[in-house]
Specification:
Blueprint: E1 5-15, E2 18-29, E3 32-36, H1 44-51, E4 59-65, E5 72-75, H2 87-95, H3 101-111, H4 126-139, E6 144-148, H5 156-169, E7 174-178, H6 182-188, E8 191-193
Parallel strand pairs: 3-7, 3-8, 5-6, 6-7
Antiparallel strand pairs: 1-2, 1-4
């Protein structure tokens, strides 16, 4: 994958006449992990949804330079898994046949108990569902990964394990992760962004 940048230019967004942010400018580069911080309600999730094409800004634009054809993947605040599918089936569906069944099984067993990998997601704990959503985003082919508070519901030991896995699997991609914890920035060895302040 060639180096690339995500350029966010003069983005503005408001709801019901209330300005969330105005004239937001950011330049983010591949092969980096960025940690997006700010108080609740400041617009972190809204920015991620705009980048994913799920919402439209009031004005401004964003683009990749050079243009990237691969899609973004995401971890939302809610897990958005197929509850009747197993973790294995959820991840296999996202990989678009870029990984074999044995490869997917091996990766799942790194973050999940082996006996949980083929059970319906609806029978799993919240932490297991969270790890499945993170695995799905990392193992799917993409140029960029957006994660909205991905460590919610994980205990400290599991969070550390997941962060090490994220760093290993990020590759040359661009990762943008929203979080409330400054310690996460250090653990991820990420670049802290506070674009909504000032």
């Amino acid at each position: 994958m060639l180096p690339f940048q995500l350029n966010i230019q003069n983005l503005s967004k408001s709801y019901n006449g209330l300005c969330i942010w105005k004239g937001l400018n950011l330049t983010l580069s591949s092969d980096h992990i960025y940690c997006l911080m700010g108080p609740s309600g400041v617009g972190k999730t809204t920015l991620l949804r705009i980048l994913l094409g799920l919402e439209q800004p009031d004005s401004g634009s964003f683009s990749f330079s050079p243009s990237q054809s691969d899609q973004m993947t995401a971890v939302f605040q809610e897990d958005r898994l197929s509850e009747t599918f197993s973790p294995f089936d959820n991840v296999m569906a996202a990989t678009r046949k870029t990984l074999s069944r044995n490869q997917v099984m091996a990766e799942l067993c790194r973050l999940l108990p082996p006996e949980s990998v083929t059970r319906p997601v609806c029978t799993l704990s919240g932490g297991m569902k969270r790890r499945t959503a993170i695995l799905r985003s990392l193992l799917a082919p993409s140029c960029s990964i957006l994660m909205d508070e991905p460590f919610t519901g994980l205990d400290e030991d599991t969070k550390y394990q997941v962060i090490q896995y994220i760093k290993e699997k990020a590759g040359r991609r661009l990762l943008l992760i929203s979080t409330h914890q400054e310690e996460d920035v250090d653990l991820l060895e990420g670049t802290l962004l506070r674009p909504f302040e000032g």
